[in-house]
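WARN retry 2 of 3 for item q-0093 after timeout on previous attempt; input resubmitted unchanged.
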Amino acid sequence: MTPDELWGGVYEEVSKVVVGQGEVLRQIFAGLLANGHVLIEGVPGIAKTLMAKALARALGLNFSRIQFTPDLMPSDVTGTMVYEMQSATFRFKRGPIFTNILLADEINRTPPKTQAALLEAMEERQVTVDGTPHLLPKPFFVLATLNPIEYEGTYPLPEAQLDRFLLKVIVDYPDENHEREILLHSHKGVDIHRRVEMEVQPVADAEKVLAAQAAVDNVTVVEEVFNYIASLVRQSRQLFAIRLGASPRAGVYWLRVSKAWAALQGRDFVIPDDVKNVAKPILRHRLILKPEAELEGLTPDAVIDGLLDSVPVPR
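OK item q-0093 returned
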């Protein structure tokens, strides 16, 4: 099963319960194919949790959800050593992070110490407890949610934590027709989370997801596209509005997601449009604007539009 075939089957199932978020789902799926993690920002009530559940169900993968709270401890995420009376030994009890798709709900509501519990897992696909590393299942994919309007009782994510996320995806309100469709679904009286189990059918498994990720690695990139990404990354550091531009790691991630985006279109080669289509989710959480630019009302997305206009597109 090719990546675009896998995406087609998954989208058909997920769209049974998630309405009006096709582009968001495509970006999240590109993050999965690129073997990265995705940060989702959106106001409450727009199906962020539902998307994660439905995606895991359609992919046939194990799913865990952690509600991040101020009193959450690192061991609540990774697991802890427990003493067994019968054998008089300690045994590692795995935490909810040992899954294929992990939903870290409202990740900025927990202190930095607990946020840091995810760092090793996201980067190295393992957790270390009492000096012993424990490998995580494959694939391992973190979806973390942020509420953009509530700041009381939150802990801003440090740059090192933000950089672990391959993409930052913005979830907006559905349009009028989709909102009406949501109301019609609700009118049937079936709980939406029960509908995930009743209507969404698995169309894949862990082996098929890993095979799709391997296929993305084999997507061809010509020299002109390499040069285009390098020019964009370097130009991002020269923009007047930017205090901190894209790092070399951001360029590596940009290339990886561009390859995944090409595979989703059924191509085995990257074109400049692939690079442009994933620019905002790749860069919006990595660019730091100057204070005067923010005072003028500039947003990272607007700056990224200017960046794309400033660098010639290769033929």
